[in-house]
Amino acid sequence: MKTAARGTWAAYAIVGAGALLMLAPFWFMFVFATHSRTEIFSLPPPSWFGDDLLANLKILGERIPFWRNLGWSLYVALMSTGLTLLFCSMGGYAFAMFEFRFKKALFALVIGTMLLPSFMSMIPTFMIMDVLGWIDQPRALYIPGAASAFGIFLMRQYVTSAVPRELIEAARMDGCGELSIYARIVLPLLKPALGTLGLVTFISSWNNFIGPLVVLRSPENYTLPLALRSLQSPADTEWGALMAGAAVAVLPLLVLFALASRQLIAGLTVGAVKQ
Question: Which of 85, 156, 171, 252 could make an SS bond with 95 (beta carbons 3.0 to 4.6 A apart)?
C-alpha cells in the first residue's frame, strides 16, 4: 500500500512539474506585458506584475494599428471556421452516405493532399490570388482553405460512426429533402466533431503567419501574428509592448480552449450515436 501511494505521489509530482514548465512561458509573457523594456532586461527579471500595461498598450497602438489588426484576425478566423465547418461537413456527409462514380478515387485524392508539405502550395496560391485580384485582401486567407482535407476526413469518419444509414433512409421515405436531412438530422449529430474541427480551425487561422506574409501587403490589413512580428527590429524593439500584444492575442485562445476543451475531447474520440 505504501509503495502504491508513493508511486501515485511521484506521478503527481512529475505531472505537476511538467505543468509548471508548460505554464511558465505564459506566466512570464503576462508579467512582462506589465513592465517596461528596461525592467524586463534587469537582473533578476521581474516575476510579478508591474504598472506599465497601459503604457505598453499605448506604445503598441502608436507603432502599429493594433486594434484594427486584432479585428482582422478575428474576422479571418471566424470566416475560416464557419466556411470550413460548412464545406467539410457537407463533403464528409457526401463521402459517407452517398454513392457516386469515382467516389473512392476522389476520397483518396483528398487524403493524398494531406501528404503534401504546406510550403509547396505557397507559390501556386499566390499566383491564383494574384490572378483573382485578391492580393492584400483578407478573403485570400480564408477562402482557399475552406474545404480542408483534414476536415473532410474527420467529418467522413464521424458521420460513418455516428449517423445511422437507416435514419437517413427513413427520413427520405418520409419525403424529407437532402438539404433538410443535412440540416435537421445530420448536423445535430455532428456537434462533437464540429466543435473539434471548429476549435482546431480557429486556432490554426488565428496563429497563421505564413499565409498573411505571402498575400498581405498593407500594415493596416495585417493579422496579429504578422503585425506583432513587424514590431521587432535589431535595434529598437519595445519588448514590453510586444509582450502586451502577445498577451492580448493569446487571451481569446485560452478562453476558447477553456470553454471548448470537453467538446474537443468528445470530438476526438469519435463517439457513438446518442441513445
Answer: 156
Could you check whether the bond before residue 225 is cis, i.e. omega within 30 degrees of 0? Answer: no
pTM over 0.90: no
- Integer Cα distance of 225 and 73 in angstroms: 9
Instruction: Report pLDDT digits (tens) over 103-151.
Output: 999 999 998 888 888 788 888 889 999 999 999 999 999 998 888 899 9
